[in-house]
Amino acid sequence: MESFYGPWNVRLNHVDPYFRQRFIISGSDQADGRYEVSSGGVVNLEVTGSAWFVSLETEPFPPIAGQAWLERTIQRATRFEYPDGLIVQLDTVSLPRLSITCISMDPAVNPNPIANPYDFTIPER
Amino acid sequence: MCLRPYSSIPCTSGDAQIKDRNSTLYSYGAILPEPGALTPSAAVVGAQRYLQIVVCLTPHLNFQRNLAGVTKRWDLMLPADPQGRKERVGDVIVGEEFNERIQGPLFAKAGATHDYKHPDNPDDPPEPSPLQSARTGGSFPRGVIETVIEEIQKFVNSNGALVGMGIGTVAAAGGGGLLALIPAFLLILIILRELLEQFDEDIRLSEHMEIISAALLNTIDPNPLRRAAGLFTWQLIAYMAFKLQQGDDDFEAISYAVMDAHDYLDTSCNVNVDSVEVFFDAVDDRLIAFVDALIAFERMQEIQGKAFLGYAGLRFMARTRALIGMQKFDTTCSVEVSCLRDVSGSQEVVDYAVALARNPNIKGLLHWGQRNDYTMAEVERIYGDRALNPGGNLGLWRQALALVTDNGRLNGFSSEFSRRTGLEVVVPRIEAFSVTPSVAHVGDTATISWDCTNNPAGTLTRVQHTRPNSQVTPLIVLPLAGLHHFPLDQVGTHLVTFSAVYRFNDVERLDKRTAYISVS
């Protein structure tokens, strides 16, 4: 389970087909729930809260008696990219793969990006 | 020390050189035999023991790159007359073989020189670096401006055909954007020459740079070409200044000449500096995200007509044994963001760095001795010992403080800073408490005695008497030490609850004892 603070936008990055997979949001102000995802699907979810959590789950295959869903181990990677800003990518560490991308919506973290009007280039020599 | 494009350090070898503790960035066993590199005069002993990466936040290559200067150090066998000793310490002053004030010999140059700058020829006396000169005069920015004027003039005169080293680096190949700025560069040349004519040798470097940035960036001229030419020229000046400061520079000298980089003659440049230092686990990618965020912020504010003048310095160190030391990780990296405050836009970057470090998604640890805006809640989130989850390293640290301050009664270590950040004794302590007798008859008198003398000022005591019929009687506010008597007027078990309560930064903590009296 990974923790987040403040407002974020959650998007589906990748999900392997042929498996039922989902992510769980808990502790948020208004977006708690289980979100089942499928290949080709689109997720664009606004989540906020002082501290909230994400976990990734897969339906076990072959099925495990008494266990409908299996919580996955997550690899968390953080980067800062212009113009999106602070980005956290959560990936399952093993197959089947499930990957979601969280983009910070906190203006104190990501000041409004401004389109660069400048072109400082010279001809190739 | 050498210059490299910043993006190559974390990225090209797979995000890697910083995140990989075994990479060559950390673990050269000896000075590399690079062409033109220093050949040490004595044998290298031990592994590389210092690593610093200084990042220039001002971009170049059409906003795509940032310069980084990498510094490494090794220990050498000590020669008989090591370089730096006579320059940094000098001889013992005659008659000062034992100076009362320092309880030792007084050396002529100790604490009385510029920082050590090795001579190209070891036989020559060292000369002040450009920045040193700039602190006592304006030759450093003057020299940079003169070089920039020369480059732009050549570019303009040749209609863009002659591209100097600086312009060729700050611009990117593959377009003609800069050619369109040639008319605007003519105006910039006039501005730069006026700056030179009005140059005041007696003002600080930061004031020079504020004048330069205001002239180049913060223009009210709505002409976009003029704004573009001004920003390009600013980036050119920043690039050249950084390159002068962080260029290739291999030398050997005695350790204090290398490591004590303080300029004892500096009375101007450093007095108006603001800085913050943020610590990360070096293998956590939040470190790189933090630096990239600073670069993105600077890029954004340059487009808006402001500019940071300073550096982001990454230094690497091992884990500390100190309970609340910032170096919490096996390989810790600190990012020091330091600016010349006079330049409009510099303070903004430091403020942004502080806000970003404090964001719990980034998890940066602020240096205790530099700008530190932590609240007690943040310190307890990072180092432990929250009221609901006491303990952790901060809990141990507070216990140690309690030992030497009579549990906070002595407040000699207390300050506005320690109170804001919660580096205080926060848990009250009941040192002695007793209720007698424990067995009694109706009509007898019970006595409570207590001692809570050793506690922070503001600690309160509370006593509650619960009779056998569950009737609860809170007693009067009591002193920190004393006795209280009350009648036992019912048969059964009486409960006495005694608490010492301390409310600090709106968080209440208590120490509590209970006693029973059986009455027949």
Judged by helices, strands and strand pairing, the structural class of chain A is mainly beta
| CATH homolog superfamily of chain A | Calcium-mediated lectin
What assembly state would you assign to the polypeptide chains in this entry? heterodimer
Low-confidence stretches of chain B: 10-14, 128-137
Q: Which two protein chains have the largest interface (Cβ within 8 Å of the partner's Cβ), and how many residues from each?
A: A-B, 31 and 43 residues
Structural class of chain B: alpha+beta
* Overall radius of gyration of chain B: 32 Å
What is the straight-line distance between the termini of chain B? 86 Å
Write the CATH architecture name of chain A.
Sandwich
Outline the biggest β-sheet of chain B.
7 strands, antiparallel
Question: What is the radius of gyration of chain A?
Answer: 18 Å
Give the SSE order of chain B as H and E letters. EHEEHHHHEHHHHEHEEHEHHHEEEEEEEE
Can you tell me the overall shape of chain B? Answer: elongated
- How many separate structural domains of chain A? 1
How many strands of chain A?
A: 11
Q: Report mean pLDDT of chain B, rounded to a whole number.
A: 87
- How many structural units, i.e. domains of chain B? 4
Estimated helix fraction of chain A: under 10%
Overview of the structural elements:
- Chain A is an all-beta fold and 125 residues long.
- Chain A is built from no helices and eleven strands.
- Chain A has a single domain (2-104), classed as Calcium-mediated lectin (Jelly Rolls), CATH 2.60.120.400.
- The radius of gyration of chain A is 18 Å and the shape is globular.
- Residues 10-14 and 128-137 of chain B have low confidence and may be disordered.
- In chain B, helix 4 packs antiparallel against helix 6 and helix 6 (182-197) packs across helix 8 (224-246).
- Chain B has 520 residues and is an alpha+beta fold.
- The interface between A and B is large, with 31 and 43 residues.
